[in-house]
Amino acid sequence: MEGSYGAPESVQKRFALPVDSEHKATEFRLFSVAAPHMRAFHLSWVSFFACFVSTFAAPPLLPIIRDDLDLTATDIGNAGIAAVSGAVFARVAMGTACDLFGPRLASAALTLITAPAVYCTAIANSAASFLLVRFFTGFSLATFVSTQFWMSSLFSSKVVGTANGIAGGWGNLGGGATQLIMPLVFSLIQNIGATKFTAWRIAFLVPALFQTLSAYAIFFLGQDLPDGNYAQLHKSGDKHKDSFSQIFYHAITNYRGWILALTYGYCFGVELTIDNIIAQYFYDRFNVNLHTAGIIAASFGLANLFSRPGGGILSDIMGKRYGMRGRLWALWIVQTLGGIFCILLGKVGSLSVSIAVMIIFSIFVQAACGLTFGIVPFVSRRSLGIISGMTGGGGNVGAVLTQVIFFRGSRYSTETGITLMGVMIICCTILIMLIYFPQWGGMFCGPSSKGTTEEDYYMGEWNSAEKERGIHMASMKFSENSRSERGKRVGSAPTPANGTPSTYV
């Protein structure tokens, strides 16, 4: 048998990957499709990718759609805002649904429910109808929350940043891939014989069908937790059905979640904003053709292939060496650099230099997204879903506010709006310095002198009556497994001799 940081050998044999006492995988094997850990990983990122493709299928075809529907600059700006505003509350709701019903059912349901809006884009015939289909399609971006919740439920603290970063990053690839996919599909349909005003409508059937199929795949092939689905575990008594009021209370009273929601608004929110404006920006400012503008815009989103995963991996590396304090420092540095390059993007006037700066900017701003969700799983064990939803929703709020302030109407030129957006990134990122975990410390302070432990922090989410019923045991196991956030200085906080139960099963 293994020691307290792992599961017994008999339990290990039940899974293709090594697991800890919560049966979360302690290794991440990218090219494996083993159930339940790696299968869920691939299902989640593919589904999120499909939703991203659907949500941002319109921007690369906007010059055509604009002419067909007689859209003004304000109409286009409002539709872009609608596409990202729909997910603001949907993401918080998705977090709650994950806590109560599990990520598999929550993700499959939302993906399937929003698919009809993508189909209906093909019949939009006015600015109002175009805005509405983009608004309802944007709800599907809330599947990001279920993706991050799912990865945090299946992978241990040692690799959770990596799992979250790659799943989120590869899902976000849809924002870049659609810049290539939609113009290509449009051209193929037009070459077959359709007029350009008919071709763009038929093209939307491709992302709609892709999204529908991904919903069924998650429902029939996915699994919520290493030991089964929520409904099954609730029925058997192996998982307690938690109280919504308690989950909600412990989420909204944890200030760390609010700070991460705000700072995420100026990394992921900026990414959403760029996805909406960048193709048209290069098309209008540098007079490139539609296909070229699409390729340039795609390079921004396609950087997610390695940038957001790189942020998650960096978070785990810093966590292993320096603990939670290392994760916080890495997030602040990377996101601040993203703000600096965003300012430069709005200042440079050369096409080639703009492309180079945009790519560097994309790497830093997307890596910051991965670094953020290397921290989120540790904010709360009991309210993980809502904290994830709050943070994810913050990304959409940031996108909405940024587009309303800087890119709606003619108050600012697009290049000026990009520069001011960079200033906002730097200012909001300063708040990371206020995040403090008493058991691990913050950017400038070490752990509490009171000797606070991981058990003290996570057990604070349960009252004495709940502890007597034993429904806090999952948090106890998580407390033990999260001691790695002390970094190499394992002695940075004491561990009570009887503070954590035996993990032998």
UniProtKB/TrEMBL annotation:
GO cellular component, one term: plasma membrane
Source taxon at top rank: Eukaryota
GO molecular function: nitrate transmembrane transporter activity; nitrite transmembrane transporter activity
InterPro entries: MFS, MFS_dom, MFS_trans_sf, NO3_transporter, NO3_transporter_NarK/NarU-like
Family membership noted in the UniProt record: Belongs to the major facilitator superfamily. Nitrate/nitrite porter (TC 2.A.1.8) family. Belongs to the major facilitator superfamily. Phosphate:H(+) symporter (TC 2.A.1.9) family.
Topology in membrane: Multi-pass membrane protein
Transmembrane feature ranges: 45-64, 76-93, 105-124, 131-150, 170-190, 202-221, 328-349, 355-379, 386-406, 418-437
GO biological process: nitrate assimilation
SUPFAM superfamilies: MFS general substrate transporter
Keywords: Cell membrane, Membrane, Nitrate assimilation, Transmembrane, Transmembrane helix, Transport
Record's subcellular location: Cell membrane; Endomembrane system
Residues in Major facilitator superfamily (MFS) profile domain copies: 40-440
Protein known as: Nitrate/nitrite transporter
CDD domains: MFS_NRT2_like (cd17341)
Chief location bin: membrane
Span list, region Disordered: 478-505
Compositionally biased residues, Polar residues: 495-505
